[in-house]
User: Fold this.
Amino acid sequence: MTAKKERVVVTGMGIASPLGCAVQKFWDGLVKGKSGIGSLEGGIFSGMHTKIGGVVWEYDEKKYFDIKEIKRMSRSSQLGLVAAEQAIVHAKLKNGDVNPEEIGVMVGSSIGGFSAADSYFMHFYETDRLSPYTIPVSMNIGPGSNISIKHGFQGPLVNVDAACSTAAHTIGNAFNMIRNGSLQVAITGAADTPFSPGVVEAWMALRAVTTREDNPAEACRPFSADRDGMVLGEGAGILVLEAESHALKRGVPILAELKGYGASADSHHLTQPSQKGPALAMRRALEDAGMTIADIDYINAHATGTEWNDKNETNAIKEVFGERAYSIPVVGNKAAFGHSIAGSGALELIGCVLSLRDQVAPPTINYKVPDPDCDLDYVTKGKRSLPLKNIMSNSFAFGGSNAVLIVGKYEANAD
Assistant:
């Protein structure tokens, strides 16, 4: 007889984003159609060929960390800790009623290590000397490790790096561990920043970044025919996932239920997505959740604002949902806060949980010109109130790694 799987719920959330360093501030900006994209000036930005980006503008490291901590942590680690602190408080994990050995930390990062190492290696090439901080600071497990160390959590410590799908895969793996009974509580999500000269220039060399810089707030235009690329961003999104029975025993509020996770590979091309891989991940997420296409009320799209991705994602949605694709709202958030690589999927999933709470889909901003190849309902004229029970969140990455999560409104005893 197969053991019954645990239901997995969300009990805490935290954010560091270009729209704010608090969950409600982030959400207010998102639903109001605000943009966190601005001009990059001075400091490390002075030598870059792109002059716009989604920086966590209100973040001041000196308000959160002392000099020694700043030296020992990358910016992605710092942002991850800031978001994690919010989520841990939100989930009431500081009450002392949870054994720290039962709390895992599964926080992804992808490019933040490269960004952190950039200045160290530039110094090395100039002086032939390297700091002992180079490796500890540049490890992509840094955000998770620092969260684990600060809070004394001794459950599994895992970093997933799957480029732009990092957060969704990380959250999906934490979901599976809790569902299968091998873990009770997970601090999960991702933190990332691409902002160092070498890393930004590498993205520019790919020609994936927009060259439209005269009006930063309107530069990234998902699904619009005049789109010409993404805007780089940074951020951290952290969620506390918990076994339903564990959360109920603790008596903490349940924010939403994670219901399904689907993963696939394109097996096609390192930088040009295929339609097959994303469609397969969406189908697998539906199957994992025990759902049909009729159960999905809103799709939070990967929506980078690049020619390849937006068209490909639109076609993959049509392949999976058929005619129903035209009646499901499809929203892209990256025009509002940039593409923070690993961090994006976590920020987007937190937005989905808040959509379920408020029964509102935020808008896809900066849609200017209809594209016959992108012809779905992208919620382009402001936020939309609508009944929401289940939301699909898509994350598709260079390298062909695809991850899809399904989050739903929590209903007690729904089985």
